[in-house]
Write a structure and sequence with these properties.
One of its GO terms (molecular function) is hydro-lyase activity. The chain is α/β, with parallel strands linked by helices. It is 58% helix and 11% strand.
Length: 423
C-alpha cells in the first residue's frame, strides 16, 4: 500500500503547478477509493467508533471538493451550528492539510505557498491550505469564515483566501477575557453572522433546523462526558490518526447526526473495554504527528501505552441553550480552553489528567504554532508541580520535510521508559 500511495502522491505533486484541475481530480478519486477501503476493508485493530470516524471524516473532506457551492472553508474553532442548519459543509484547515499529507502530496502545496511569499516559519497546516488555494487545486467555496481564537494565523490566512477566491469573508472576533459585556459582544456578532449567511446564501435560517442541531450537539456532549468517565478506569486501544479524526466530530461536525452516532459508538466501545491494567497512560497536548512512522510504532495500538486523548478534543464541552442560541454559543466560545491566558489551557489539561489518571503528558509543539510554543515551558512547570511528568516535543503535524525523526522517537522512548520505571 505504501508504494501505491507514494506513486499517487507523486502524480498529484507533478500536477499541482502545471495542471491543477488534474490534481483535484486525482485527489477526489483517491479519497473516494480510500473512503471505500475504510468502510469495507478497515484495519483490523480499529474499534467500531474508530472505523466510523474514518468513514465520516473522509466524507467530510470529499463533499466540499465535489460540491464547493455547498461548502465553506472555516477555521477549526468556528461554531458550525449555523452552517449545519443551513446545509453548508465546513472544510477546515487542519483537516484538509492532514488529508493532503495522507496523500503524500503536501510538499508541492507548501512549496507553492512559500514561492508565493508565505514565510517558512508559518504554520504548516495553513501553508498547505494557502498553497491549495493559490495553485487553483482547491475549488472556490461559497464563503470563508474564521474566529480569532488561539491561532494568530487565522486572520491573515482567511483574508488571503477571500482575496484569492473573491468570496465573502466573515470573522468572529473572540475577546481575550470573558464577562457579560463580552458575551453580549460575541452574541451580537453571531446575529450578524446569521445576516451574513442569509444574504450570501439567499435563504433564511430555519430556527427549527437550528434547534435540531443544538439538541443533537447537547446529546453528543452528554455522551462525551459519559465516555470520559468510563475512560478514567478503562484501557481503550487508540492510535494517533483516530485521535485526529475525532477533531472532525468534536468541532466542525458537532451537531450533526453523524457526530451524535459517533459518540454513541464511542461510549459503547468504552463500556465494553477492559479495566485499566497498569499501562502507561499518556495525555497529549495539541495536534498529533499521525503520519510519522517512528511515532506510530511507539504509540499506535501499543498494549503498554494508552493514548488517552489530545487536549484539542476536550477544549470546550458545554451544552447550548436552544431558547437562547446566540448567547449560549458566545459563552461557549468565550469559555474555550485555548482562549484567554495560557493558564486556562493548562488548568483544563490538569483537570483532565487527574480525571483520566494520566501517568504523563506529551506537549507537542507543532511548527509555527506560536500559541502552543509560547506556553510550553510555563505549562510544563505547572503540570510537573502537580505531579504529571511532561515532555515538550517539537515536531510538525503535517510536513514530512520538517522533522527530526530520530531525535523525536529517541526522546519519546526515553520518556516512556521514565514513566514505566515509576509504575
Amino acid at each position: 500500500m505504501g508504494t501505491v500511495v507514494e506513486k499517487f502522491g507523486e502524480m498529484v505533486r507533478k500536477n499541482v503547478e502545471k495542471n491543477p484541475s488534474r490534481a483535484l481530480e486525482l485527489l477526489r478519486a483517491g479519497y473516494f477509493i480510500s473512503g471505500k477501503q475504510m468502510k469495507y476493508l478497515p484495519k483490523h485493530q480499529l474499534l467500531p467508533h474508530q472505523k466510523y470516524a474514518a468513514v465520516v471524516s473522509n466524507r467530510a473532506i470529499r463533499a466540499p471538493l465535489t460540491s464547493p457551492d455547498h461548502s465553506a472553508v472555516v477555521s477549526v474553532f468556528t461554531p458550525c451550528e449555523l452552517l449545519h442548519a443551513m446545509g453548508i459543509m465546513p472544510q477546515f484547515t487542519e483537516g484538509l492539510a492532514c488529508y493532503i499529507n495522507g496523500a503524500k502530496a503536501e510538499s508541492a502545496f507548501i512549496r507553492f505557498a512559500e514561492n508565493a511569499g508565505i514565510p517558512q516559519t508559518y504554520c504548516s497546516y495553513h501553508k498547505i491550505l494557502i498553497g491549495a488555494a493559490l495553485s487553483g487545486v482547491l475549488p472556490k467555496p461559497r464563503f470563508v469564515v474564521n474566529t480569532t481564537l488561539a491561532c494568530d494565523a487565522n486572520n491573515s490566512t482567511f483574508r488571503l483566501l477571500a482575496d484569492i477566491w473573491k468570496v465573502p469573508h466573515f470573522t468572529l472576533d473572540i475577546p481575550y477575557r470573558s464577562s457579560d459585556r463580552e458575551v453580549s459582544y460575541v452574541a451580537e456578532q453571531m446575529r450578524e453572522f446569521v445576516l451574513f449567511l442569509e444574504e450570501t446564501l439567499s435563504q433564511k435560517l430555519s430556527e427549527k433546523m437550528l434547534r435540531n442541531v443544538i439538541r443533537r450537539e447537547n446529546r453528543s456532549i452528554r455522551l462525551y462526558q459519559e465516555f470520559f468517565n468510563e475512560l478514567s478506569q478503562k484501557v481503550l486501544p487508540n492510535d494517533m490518526t483516530s485521535e485526529m479524526y475525532k477533531i472532525f466530530l468534536t468541532h466542525v461536525l458537532l451537531g450533526t447526526g453523524e457526530a451524535e452516532h459517533y459518540f454513541e459508538l464511542l461510549v459503547d466501545d468504552a463500556q465494553k473495554s477492559e479495566p485499566s491494567n497498569n499501562e502507561i497512560r499518556i495525555l497529549w497536548v495539541h495536534s498529533l504527528p499521525f503520519w510519522q512512522r517512528s511515532m506510530k510504532n511507539i504509540i499506535n495500538f501499543n498494549p503498554r501505552v494508552q493514548l488517552l486523548c489530545c487536549d484539542l478534543n476536550f477544549d470546550v464541552m458545554v451544552e447550548l441553550n436552544e431558547e437562547n442560541p446566540y448567547e449560549s454559543i458566545a459563552k461557549k466560545l468565550l469559555s474555550h480552553s485555548l482562549g484567554g491566558e495560557n493558564t486556562r489551557r493548562t488548568d483544563r489539561i490538569l483537570e483532565m489528567a487527574k480525571l483520566l489518571h494520566a501517568d504523563g503528558i506529551v506537549y507537542f509543539c507543532h511548527w509555527g504554532c506560536k500559541h502552543t510554543l509560547g506556553g510550553a515551558n510555563a505549562a510544563k512547570c505547572i503540570l510537573e508541580d502537580a505531579g504529571f511528568p511532561t515532555l515538550i516535543l517539537d515536531g510538525d503535524g503535517c510536513d514530512r520535510g520538517n522533522v527530526n525523526d530520530g531525535q523525536m522517537s529517541t526522546r519519546m522512548q526515553a520518556f516512556l521508559e521514565i514513566l514505566e520505571a515509576k509504575k
